[in-house]
Specification:
By secondary structure, the protein is mostly beta strands. It is built from five helices and 33 strands.
Length: 530
């Protein structure tokens, strides 16, 4: 697979130079030269915004239901997809050959087993000099360590692995994506990401939009070469900043909506790009859910940041508009991002009719009381039973580090006792960047942010979280209860370029948990039907 160099205008080069600031090691001049050698699609050839219809990723059917378990089968494969009319087919890596992958719809209390078969091309991939190995992580699930997509627990082409998911948490928007050691960024960028929606009774009984008014928006940026192929250009290991915005795999799509409320499950699946969302009409967004599910109460905001891997459930009420009106979901300038004029908008909603169904058309003042044993929302700073831990995010010698460390699978960087409640303070010292820090296994509550972590959280992040957006020079303070599993779990920046090089450490919860390598992949020749 050839990875073309990107071409960027002088203005963009300047912008990237500003973005990188002092933190970037590569002199601007050299960066400009490598970029100009390239075959990036000219902006005049890019697809026009609002030309393509909105699509939803298909829902995957189980191959078998037995007892309390649903079995699924997914083949990871290379495929060609047409992103927009007039474009050549773009090679992707997709779960079942599509990106985003098919959505898995799960029900709390029913276990899910997903057989992931690596059908990617064999041999060395010149893009990263390694085989096309994969590891599948279900982001937002309290999965056992051996099914959590540990970076070293890889599956080679021609091999498969059965992943077991407990589905014992509150309803939430979670996602499965690749996590292979050192090429997570490449694999996920090529398309290995999909949604997994966990429902429960509490959510089902709420009068909030459901069913076809409950709509996923997987937002991701991309760079295309002149011949329509994805370019993985990470600006000397700093960030990948695409100029094409895809929603559910389509560039700047148009969705036809009725005059009523819709619930959008927003996932930022981008490699390095954050978004600052707002509606073109100036109307507020009603945030009802965060990474770990529904918030205690809804929150109205004019604009909100969405870092990589963050999920927000947002209600938009199109009854405020007349038929024929167009509403654009905008992306405002977000600090420490490289914006192009094309990245200022995400998609458009065209109001086409009155509501065809008026059920589930409200947002009650109370949503989720958060009664679960591991729900963080009722925890306070003073509930801490364990030590206060501090993590510092910075860059040294071109590598991204946490507390001066890069990933070492043999080392444990934090060891909370099983069921301990701890307060963590996470500080971003690398001025020109933001780091969305993700901790596997747990949900946490953000209790402070800002210069010393003493300011209140953003209004829209007052729900259970598993990714914290740490802005430049900022400290984010969280509280969490560490369980319900024991063992080793990764934690890392979800800028996938940073994660791969090597802003990742691990914790071990309690003692005596299973090894993350306790259930290795097997060759397909040993595969038996479920
Ligand atoms: Cu979404 Cu460790 O990843
Ligand atoms: Cu995760
Ligand atoms: Cu980072």
């Amino acid at each position: 697979m050839e990875i073309a160099q990107r071409e960027i205008s002088r203005k963009d080069v300047l912008k990237l130079g500003v973005l990188a600031g002092a933190a970037l090691l590569l002199p601007l001049e050299r960066a400009a030269k490598t970029q100009l050698l390239n075959a990036r699609m000219a902006s005049s050839q890019l697809p026009e915004p609002f030309q393509v219809g909105f699509v939803r990723p298909p829902v995957l059917k189980p191959v078998l239901r037995r007892g309390d378990t649903d079995f699924y089968r997914i083949v990871q494969k290379q495929a060609g997809v047409q992103l927009a009319p007039g474009l050549p087919k773009t090679r992707i890596f997709g779960y079942n050959g599509i990106t985003p992958g098919p959505t898995i719809v799960a029900r709390r209390g029913r276990r899910v087993i997903v057989r992931q078969i690596n059908g990617l091309p064999r041999g060395i991939n010149p893009a990263h000099g390694d085989e096309n190995t994969t590891s599948t992580h279900l982001h937002g699930s309290d999965t056992l360590p051996q099914y959590d997509g540990y970076a070293m627990d890889t599956t080679r082409p021609g091999w498969f692995k059965d992943y077991v998911y407990p589905d014992d948490q509150d309803a939430r928007t979670i996602w499965y994506h690749d996590h292979a050691f050192h090429h997570t960024g490449f694999n996920a960028y090529m398309g290995l990401a999909g949604l997994y929606l966990l429902h429960d009774d509490l959510e089902a009984k709420l009068p909030i939009p459901q069913g076809r008014y409950d709509v996923p928006l997987v937002i991701k940026d991309a760079i295309l070469s002149q011949n329509g192929q994805l370019i993985f250009e990470d600006q000397s290991l700093s960030s990948l900043m695409g100029d094409i915005i895809l929603v559910n795999g389509k560039p700047w799509p148009v969705m036809r909506v009725e005059r009523r409320k819709y619930r959008f499950r927003i996932l930022n699946a981008s490699t390095s790009r954050g978004y600052r969302l707002a509606l073109s009409t100036g109307e507020p967004l009603t945030v009802v859910g965060t990474d770990g599910g529904l918030m205690p109460r809804p929150v109205l905001v004019q604009r909100m940041n969405v870092g990589m891997a963050e999920r927000y459930e947002v209600v938009i009420d199109f009854a405020r508009y007349r038929v024929g009106q167009q509403v654009v979901l905008r992306n405002l300038d977000l600090k420490n991002n490289a914006d192009f004029s094309s990245t200022r908008q995400i998609m458009r909603f065209d109001v086409v009719s009155d509501a065809k169904d008026r059920r589930n058309n409200s947002v009650p003042p109370r949503l989720n009381p958060g009664r679960g044993a591991y729900s963080p929302m009722r925890l306070k700073e003073s509930d801490a039973t364990g030590p206060r831990r501090r993590f510092r995010f910075h860059r040294k010698n071109g590598l991204w580090m946490i507390n001066n460390r890069t990933f070492d699978p043999k080392r444990v960087d934090a060891n909370p006792a099983f069921n301990a409640v701890e307060v963590w303070e996470c500080t971003n010292n690398s001025g020109g960047w933001f780091h969305p820090f993700h901790i596997h296994l747990i949900d946490f509550k953000i209790i402070g942010r800002g210069k010393n972590g003493q300011s209140p959280p953003f209004p829209y992040e007052r729900g259970p979280k598993d990714v914290m957006y740490i802005g430049g020079g900022e400290t984010v303070k969280i509280v969490a209860k560490f369980g319900p599993r024991k063992g080793r779990y990764m934690m890392h920046c979800h800028n996938l370029v940073h994660e791969d090089h090597d802003m990742m450490i691990q914790m071990e919860v309690g003692k005596g948990g299973p090894s993350p390598l306790a259930a290795r992949a097997k060759p397909v020749s040993k595969m038996r039907p479920f």
